[in-house]
Amino acid sequence: MSGRLLIVDDEPNIREVLRIVLEAEGYSVDEAATYHEAMQCLDRTEFDLVICDIFLPDGNGLDLVRSYHGGHPNTHFVVVTARTTPAHAMTALRDGAVEYLSKPFDVEELKLVVAKQMIRPASELVLSGPLDFIGRSRAMRPLFERIPQVARSDATVLITGESGTGKELLARAIHTASPRAGRLFVPVNCGALPEGLLESELFGHVRGSFTGAVRDKRGLMQEASGGTLFLDEIGEISANTQVKLLRALQEKRVRPVGDNRELDVDVRVLAATNKDLVQQVKDGLFREDFYYRINVIHLHVPPLRERRDDIPELARHFVLRACTRLGVETKPIHRDAMSVLEHYPWPGNVRELENVIERTVAMEPSPLITVSSLPRSLLGGESDAARTAAAVLPEGGLDVEAHLDGVRRELMRQALERCGGVQKDAARLLRMTYRAFRYHAEKFNLTTTEE
């Protein structure tokens, strides 16, 4: 076992015992007796783990966690104290500590706690690089910690979160970390397919089962056998298809459309939705039995506005990728521009951030991204007064449906422009289903990149 540790405690005997025990485990150990000494050590050395007492002669160990951890997410803190209270424990964990121990502690237990923190979660290996699932913020930590266990399981997973938060990337990360990684990951956008076509895509069909079925076709559940099937926008599927999927998941068998035979399938299902399925069950729009069947394990991806600490890392990652694609030198982001990115609410979440960065890199001729490089919509745009004025009813009244159609058309036009004409991405940005967006795009004669 290797790793660099810092022990912060004003009691020499405790520091000595811990140093002897942990060095015997193969760790490199430094010591500090005060808050001031600890800050000096942290300023000159990058530690993997800090074991810190709360009550120090010249300061509070929780202040150390708060002041240092945010800027150094790779350094973990274990807080220990002889005067333990539930309030202290909650405060320590809320402020960034990974563990809270009370004195006197069992040395063997402490060794296990340290070893646990030295083993970086598999999610950190899986959720970086090409998957673009990046995040070290406090809001993302519970999600990351669960991924290794979820990946080892074969249970069905329901991933919830707003559009653009990265639910499919999370599903791919789970597949990549699972024993099924060597087989196919098959994504299906349930909201983009009509009911009859969705059943054919999932279960397959036999020749002549419907108009246009000129040959037998294997379903995607068969194609994904041995691997993972990702059902995106599962809240969009009809009650009839829910029944058939429920049976397929329970029995691990599918019946192709128009066939009397049932075929065995070995597939793990990950599902995702941006809808409140609990409310849909209450409203009779989603089957309760199917909900409980897909919600064996629940993972929620927080919106970007709740994980603002991740924005700088995400932005730099997207800049690097965009510059690499264009074959230009990587453009740094000026701190003022980064501040704008961090304070924007990002209703379209990570996908919107990615699109903004890609557009900014493509349009910025200079080697530095500044505030003026960013889209004006990020800088506040229309004032509250102007927005209020736009909602005032004229003296002579108005045709509200035509007015709302005009607003809808303009927002859809902007969404298409921001998403490069891709209807699926623009629909997600506006919280619309793909089918509804496609219908209105045709109605308004909006230009898209899709046929």
Q: In words, what does this structure look like?
A:
Helix 11 crosses helix 13, helix 14 crosses helix 16 and helix 19 (423-429) packs across helix 20 (434-443). The protein has helices at residues 12-24, 35-44, 61-69, 86-94, 107-118, 122-126, 141-152, 167-176, 195-203, 220-223, 239-251, 277-282, 288-294, 311-326, 335-343, 349-363, 384-390, 400-418, 423-429, 434-443, and strands at 4-8, 28-32, 49-53, 55-56, 59-60, 76-81, 99-102, 157-160, 185-189, 204-205, 217-218, 228-232, 253-254, 263-264, 268-273, 297-300. The chain has four domains: 4-118, 3-Layer(aba) Sandwich (Rossmann fold), CATH 3.40.50.2300; 129-300, P-loop containing nucleotide triphosphate hydrolases (Rossmann fold); 305-379, Helicase, Ruva Protein, domain 3; 396-443. It is built from 20 helices and 16 strands. 35% of the residues are buried. With 451 residues, it is of the alpha/beta class. Residues 120-132 and 381-390 have low confidence and may be disordered. The strands form five sheets. Strands 2-1-3-6-7 form a five-stranded parallel sheet, with helices on both faces. Strands 9-12-15-8-16 form a five-stranded parallel sheet. Strands 4-5 form a two-stranded antiparallel sheet. Helix 1 links the parallel strand 1 and strand 2 (28-32). 45% of the residues lie in helices and 14% in strands.
